[in-house]
Design a protein that fits this description.
Layout (H helix, E strand, L loop, with lengths): L1 E3 L2 E3 L11 H5 L2 E9 L2 E2 L2 H14 L8 H13 L6 E9 L16 E8 L12 E7 L14 H12 L4 E6 L2 E5 L3 E6 L2 E4 L10 H12 L3 E3 L5 H5 L3 E6 L3 E8 L2 E2 L7 H12 L3
Helix pairs in contact: 5-7
Bound molecules: 4'-deoxy-4'-aminopyridoxal-5'-phosphate.
């Protein structure tokens, strides 16, 4: 069962108009909420980012925080089998009578679904994953979680074709983020990640990983680093709500450090796991 515009219905019965601007233009905002045993991690932060996204593209938020919370919990409750879920919530600008670039105020289309997630166990991450690097040619509003994700999906597909977990992006030699995750490096017992800016999505897992590091007295610098520093790092990780914190030990075919997940990752990973209970 899913939620669409006021109704809880079977997913295969959920349809939107071909005039929906989400379909025609990718004109919408989305969020993904990780859920463990019915507990949503970072609910307030996700709802805040949703509001920021709607504000950025001038869509009026159709629901209050309380209404969203109830709707999300209701959708979660439909799956009684899977303990770990990812709730996907999308708001598009709505449908107009004709296709045109400009818009009048429309009734937003609201869709919520939940699907099972299976974050990998720590033991499966110890060898780390591989990544490729690509030039970041996305627009300079990448801090807006817009449904128009063409560049990101193409990067993700390229990573997949290369047998890699992710495509790490760089702009003018500076690592920004990855196709669907944020990027961290560790060097000399300090971790670094690109500062919040229009060039990256302000990941909620990024924020949580920073908090987890600080709780364990690990130094954190929200400052950018180059592709050379990425390759020379002691550790590289990516973070996202559905993947959590994943070590990267090979980039563009070159081994990172000793080719194993590092000790700082291990501490931050364990601390993050404790947020679930
Ligand atoms: N950057 C991009 C481009 C993303 O699409 C995502 C989400 N998949 C992230 C970073 C990570 O954000 P979060 O931790 O909130 O899932």
């Amino acid at each position: 069962m899913v939620y669409l515009n006021g109704n809880f219905i079977e997913k295969n019965q959920a349809y939107v108009s071909v005039m929906d601007r989400g379909f025609l233009f990718g004109d919408g905002i989305y969020e993904v909420f990780p859920v463990y045993n019915k507990k949503i991690i970072g609910l307030d932060s996700h709802l805040k980012r949703l509001q920021d996204g709607l504000d950025a593209i001038n869509i009026k938020n159709p629901h209050s925080k309380d209404e969203w919370t109830k709707l999300i919990h209701k959708v979660i409750s439909f799956d009684s089998i899977h303990l770990n879920q990812a709730v996907y919530l999308q708001i598009s600008r709505g449908s107009d009578e004709n296709r045109k670039h400009t818009y009048n105020e429309l009734k937003p289309t609201v869709y919520i679904q939940s699907s099972a997630i299976k974050p990998r166990k720590k033991s499966m991450l110890l060898d780390g994953m591989s990544a490729i690097t690509r030039e970041d040619i996305r627009w300079l509003k990448s801090n807006t979680k817009a449904t128009s994700l063409l560049a990101n999906t193409l990067y993700a597909q390229e990573a997949k074709s290369n047998g890699a977990e992710e495509a790490i992006l760089y702009r003018d030699g500076i690592v920004t983020e990855a196709s669907s995750s944020n990027v961290f490096i560790a060097k000399n017992n300090c971790i670094y990640t690109h500062p919040k800016s229009p060039m990256i999505l302000p990941g909620i897992t990024r924020e949580k990983a920073i908090e987890c590091a600080k709780t364990n007295d690990i130094s954190v610098k929200e400052s950018s680093f180059t592709t050379q520093q990425l390759m020379d790092a002691d550790e590289v990780w990516i973070t996202s709500s559905t993947r959590e914190i994943v070590p990267i030990t090979s980039i563009d075919g070159s081994q990172i450090s000793n080719g194993r997940a590092g000790p700082i990752w291990s501490i931050v990973y364990d601390e993050y796991q404790s947020l679930k209970s």
